[in-house]
Design a protein that fits this description.
Blueprint: H1 5-29, H2 32-87, H3 92-175, H4 178-189, E1 195-199, E2 202-203, H5 212-220, E3 227-228, E4 235-237
Parallel strand pairs: 1-4
Antiparallel strand pairs: 1-2, 3-4
Helix pairs in contact: 1-3, 2-3
Protein name: C4-type zinc ribbon domain-containing protein
InterPro entries: CT398_CC_hairpin (IPR056003), Oxidative_Scav/Glycosyltrans (IPR052376), Zf-RING_7 (IPR003743)
Keywords: Coiled coil
């Protein structure tokens, strides 16, 4: 294949554009924010679990408080009923039984009220745990939102770089002969660098020194011959000093 030396040199610009596109893609995959988001998401999940535990314990104590309140209310109603019976003119035997029951109810009410005080203290501590858990969750969610925003900004910047470089690449390709572009793309499809500058005896694509025989063949080739590295297959772009 033949191509004007100046046209061949444009392949270096094309290779650099492809290298930049690869760098952009690599940066997309390896943004530090991606790992940070994973850590922040795990922290948010952990804080949500902690909040669920705290709220469950708080709801349990609320139900216990409600149960005790109901029991105290029942004892008070029973006490009031007994006192009403006593005031209605009960017999001596009934009065004795009612007085005994009132003593029992008083003891029961005292026990229940002591339990109420205890669970109210527990409720205060558990309510504080819920508040702290909610604050911790809010802080974790804030940190997650911040790192997501940084990721989005980084991706937006990379998208700008990708669009700009892709545009440059498209312009270069439009300037080159179709056959040369097709050869370049076939080489690039194999996963390597498709064009490199011949620097002395070294291929600019694979960085390997050409052996003496290959170097002589390259230097003896016509200026418009499209020559390739025998090691990596890349198009070797020559300048006047290495022909």
């Amino acid at each position: 294949m033949k191509a004007d030396p100046a046209v061949q040199r444009r392949l270096l610009d094309l290779a650099e554009a492809d290298a930049e596109l690869n760098r952009v893609q690599h940066r997309r995959r390896s943004l530090p924010e991606l790992e940070q988001i994973g850590e922040a998401e795990r922290e948010v999940r952990a804080k949500r679990d902690e909040l669920v535990v705290a709220e469950t314990a708080f709801n349990d104590i609320e139900r216990e408080i409600k149960r005790l309140e109901n029991e105290v209310e029942q004892v008070r109603k029973r006490e009031q009923r007994d006192r009403d019976l006593m005031a209605s003119g009960a017999s001596a035997k009934q009065l004795e039984d009612l007085e005994h029951e009132l003593e029992t109810l008083a003891r029961r009410q005292g026990i229940l009220e002591d339990e109420q005080l205890e669970v109210m203290e527990q409720r205060e501590a558990l309510e504080m745990n819920v508040t702290k858990s909610r604050e911790a969750l809010s802080e974790a969610e804030r940190r997650l939102a911040e790192v997501q925003e940084r990721r989005d900004q980084a991706l937006a910047d990379l998208e700008v770089a990708h669009t700009r470089t892709q545009g440059e690449r498209d312009r270069i390709v439009a300037e080159l002969p179709e056959g040369l572009v097709a050869l370049y793309e076939r080489i690039r499809a194999k996963g390597g660098i498709a064009a490199g500058l011949l620097q002395g005896s070294r291929c600019g694509a694979c960085r390997i020194e050409l052996d003496r025989t290959a170097l002589i063949e390259v230097r003896d080739a016509a200026a418009d011959d499209v020559v390739r590295c025998e090691e990596c297959g890349a198009i070797l772009v020559r300048t006047g000093e290495n022909r």
